[in-house]
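Standup notes
- DV: blocked on the single-chain target, sequence here:
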Amino acid sequence: MAIRVAVIGAGAAGLCAVRHLASRSPTFSVKAFEQSSGVGGTWAYTDATGTDCRGLPVHSSMYRNLKTNLPKEVMAFPDFEFDKQLPSFIRHQDVLQYLKDYATYFNILQHIQFDTHVVKVEPVLCGKEESQTGHGQKWQVTTAPVLQKTSTVTEEFDAVIVCNGHYALPLIPSIPGLESFPGEIMHSHNYRHPEHFQDKRVLCLGAAASGQDICLDLSSAAELVYLCHNKAPLQSKLPPNVQQKPGIRSVKGSTVTLNNEEEITVDCLLFCTGYRYDFPFLTDSCNLRIEDERVTPLYKHLIHTQLPSLSFIGICKTVCPFPQFHIQVLLVLATLDGSCRLPSREEMDADAEADFQKRLSEGLPKRYAHLMAVRQWDYNDVIAHMAGCRPIKRGVQSLYDAVHEVRVKNLMDYKKVNYEMIDEEHFQIVGQ
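- DV (later): unblocked, structure below
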């Protein structure tokens, strides 16, 4: 009998999961649930903010002028390339079209139930037959049409793969006096276009990738942009109306006191401070904990150590996402079909704790428990080895690292360069 798998979400991670599950019939049968009317997840741009026309929170964090900060040559799933006619740094519309093409090419739309809200996911214990592969564990997944939430349906599955993303629930830090600010307070999740800030003095808090890109975008319309952060100053040249400043200590009315005790007056506060993990459909019996943005108990940031037939694709941050989703999905399938035998629960918990403690020893705060950056390549190799699949091509790492070096020094122009892969290990610049 086929292993029945529920996939939650039809963004990039969900599509990848459905594609590989569907390709392995009759070993697996798959059904995916997506609350929107189409594929793409966060890549499905909308001008709307707050709630959509159906009363649901807007999921996408795209803004109108967004271009990828990674070249398409490293973004693609390993066996499905982007259109080679596109430049290396592409618009969000191009990524969405790529995901639509991926779904069509692999004929997986038939496995996705759209306009469906996942109400509840809970484990059903099946006694002594439960095993490390999760074959003895059952799951009840309760769903409802998004416009008829009282009309619920409960179905049973052997495994659940969660692919609901983590770029939808804004994280806004607690800042003394923030409630006294009379101007507009916005999170980058709701940023759409620079004209909204025409002739305003804007404080942009946060200088990770999205903070840097949004700062440059809104500088085209704002009078002045303060890019506030607690990192070392950016090395790149910035627009003349952008000034780097330390982070925020407190707010009093329109006056913001910075960590160096400097005071500045601004019209708007724009928080580019990241997102929270959120799995509201998981019941308490799933025993998943989120503390200071650390999700536990997860083995390899991926598999629930107590309920190994519950997995989460895409928890890791600061990664080359689509290739990583690919190998994460393949590992999950290998654990479900028995071709990869997981360690004991105690060994998996110990592995996760050792990884966390190593991060702390390196000076990282607890909220960086799933941050990858340079760690992603060793992690990817480990995952691929466990899954018994081909590792991500070395050229992906080489180009990713090269682009990072250019970005650091030339934030304003690095997206003008175009690249192509020569072979699995090498790339070249082909113009700008």
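- Follow-up: Helices lie at 12-22, 72-75, 92-105, 209-218, 321-337, 345-361, 376-387, 394-409.
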